[in-house]
Amino acid sequence: MYGASFIQAARGPIMLITLGILLAIHQNTAWGFEQTFPVLIIVFGLLKLLERGADKSAGPMQPPQFPNPGGQA
Amino acid sequence: MRRGSIIGPVVLIAIGVAFLVRNLWPDIPVLDFLGRNWPYILIGWGALRLVELFAWTSSGKPLPVSGVSGGEWTLVVILCLFGSGLHQFSRRNSSWLPRINIGGLDVMGESFEYPYAPKSVKAASKTPRIVIESFRGDAQITGTDSDEVKVSGLKTLRAMESKDAEKSEKDSILEVITQGDQIIIRCNQDRADSRTRITSKLDISIPRGASIDARGRYGDFDIRDINGQVDIYSENAGVRLDNIGGNVKLDLRKSDIIRAIGVKGDVELKGRGDDVELENISGTVTVSAAYSGTTQFRNLAKGIRYTGVSSDFQFEKIPGEVRSTISNLSASNVVGPIRVNSTKAKDVQISDFTQGVEISVDRGDIEVRPGRLPLARINVSTMHGDVDFSVPGQAKFDLKATASRGEISNDYGDAFRIESSGSRGQILTGVVGTGGPSIVLNSNRGGITVRKGDVLAPLSVPAVPAPPVPPSKPLVRVE
């Protein structure tokens, strides 16, 4: 199962795909982008919900791990 | 090591391929294609990113915090601006980006001019077939009462050195060959040295009854006073025809202007180009082409069938004028049945017509003013735009107007019934007189106006400029 970090990383590509679809609809059908742009907000909200759901199922949040700059143990 | 995405290299390759195709095969409308389909680049970009994320997850690599970085979003914004600009621009002029020629004769060569020794050949009959073999340059062809074919003119050689030009001049002699009833005019430009480029300017006089079969690569044709058929194929040409007795068939891969005045036969146009003007045509006009400029048709006795990239129209006769650009079509004093169909944005104005009309556009305002009685069946529909229908006084008709999300204004007052449709729409119905034709007006996202009056207001059609006087001799185009 993909976790919250995956959904967070996938948010950008999914938003990009949605944007592309809306612009293609704008260009090729009678529906303009000025009418369909709320879909972007809906998709963003859904992804945030999914991320939150994944967070809860994974338990308490772990602090992010940073690479050791000195390279020492 | 920094994790690398394949998006950057893929974008670079795509840009390189697009420009390469544009330069090597200019006939392939790659920029038009990009202008129409650029949103799919965003979809592909996002999909590729998702695939990368899945691959990184399954191989256990750490994932980035955000799948699309800030820099990439900036690129997306630039792509959106560039793509929508390209879309708008390519709709107006499909060949706006010049081919990029680097170095070579165009920049560094020198021009040398040599006159052709005049040649004349007696035709076997009064109706010979004149074949002009593929050449680069301009040809002015005139029909005369003589039974001789006379060819004169000059050639321009562009070469790096004068000795190259002299050698090519000797190799590229002008030939006028008789083969039965056929006379072949051959410039032999291909025999020239590859380091020179030849452009010819031909002045040809032929018997009036002759027909012409011309092939050109680059240059203009100016043909007048011919009773036979005219058949021209060129990769890039402007064509001017005046007083032609036979059928005309033009297949031009690219053209800046096509002007034909006074053709007694049928006219058939194919290919791509900018402007078209046809006037006083006795035969049928068939157009199957992509023109990005203005097309004008005046006095077509047998009407026109026009098939473009995103729109097509048909008029049975045009005693008046039809003028069309990529975003507008206006017609005045025309005879139906009239049919206009556009899958892209197009405003349509049709006035002073008889017989039925059928108009369907995706986006655009439609003005319909019949102006003459009796009315015939009219069916008008637009998805996004207003419909303005003006009824001549004393007309009989049976009207149904539907504005799905707009308002209807009506000069007939309470005689017509108006009712709500859905949450924001209106439907207007009414009958005037008995036995009138059906008038159906539809606008999905716009308003509808139904006017009446004995005197029609002038139509808001832009004034058509008078056609410029054609030059007496074609311009010499030197490459």
Structure, described:
By secondary structure, chain A is an all-alpha fold. Chain A has helices at 4-28, 33-36, 38-57. Chain A has three helices and no strands. The radius of gyration of chain A is 18 Å and the shape is elongated. Chain A starts with a helix and ends in a 16-residue tail after the last helix. Chain B is built from six helices and 32 strands. Chain B has a 32-stranded mixed sheet that branches. In chain B, strand 17 and strand 18 form a beta hairpin. The radius of gyration of chain B is 29 Å and the shape is flat. Classes of the chains: A mainly alpha (73), B alpha/beta (479). The interface between A and B is medium-sized, with 22 and 35 residues.
Number of strands of chain A: 0
Detail the poorly predicted runs of chain B: 93-107, 455-464, 474-479
Multimeric state: heterodimer
Helix/strand/pairing category of chain A: mainly alpha
Largest contact between protein chains? Answer: A-B, 22 and 35 residues
- Provide the domain count of chain B: 3
Nearest-integer average pLDDT of chain A: 76
Low-pLDDT runs of 5+ residues of chain A are: none
Major sheet size, sense and barrel closure of chain A: none
Note the total helix count of chain B: 6
Number of helical elements of chain A: 3
Overall pLDDT metric of chain B? 82
Give the helix proportion of chain B (percent range). Answer: 10-25%
In one word, what is the shape of chain B? flat
Secondary-structure content class of chain B: alpha/beta
Range of helix content of chain A: 55-70%
Shape of chain A: elongated
Which range does the strand content of chain A fall in? Answer: under 5%
